[in-house]
Amino acid sequence: MEAPLKHVKNNLALNDIKKISNLGLFYIQEKGIPTKVIKQFEKVYRLNKKQIAFLLGVSEKTLYNLLKESVLDQERSDRFLFIIKIFEEGNETFFGPENLINWLMTPQPMLDNNVPFNLLSSITGGEAVHALMIRVKHGILA
Known about the structure:
Organism: Splendidivirga corallicola
Oligomer: single chain
Pfam family, one: Xre_MbcA_ParS_C
InterPro entries: Antitox_Xre (IPR011979), Xre/MbcA/ParS-like_toxin-bd (IPR024467)
Domain Antitoxin Xre/MbcA/ParS-like toxin-binding: 92-139
Protein name: DUF2384 domain-containing protein
Number of domains: 1
């Protein structure tokens, strides 16, 4: 059984997310991810506001307005959890945030020479990036 969600939600941090089951994340997403987690994500992966806005599918102005709130809405919480899942997989696959960001910003032949980061603008593109990361992690490059 996982940690009581009432406690976790109020004190949720980026590092907590990988320890919570998918069902637990669903419940958290329903109530909204605290915006402080976005700030932690931004710092860990050294992304700028424009990049964070792109990942969330919003304008920079909307991102600034979202960050004034205490939590994201359900839809953006769900999208952000998906992005976190991809970045966590990449962090593990490429042995750290710096290597991951370098990989995400480099055209990949297995993605028709698309820049993986650019594919993260959609769920379908994100799934393609995530699948390639898993292949790389397991040495399946052909």
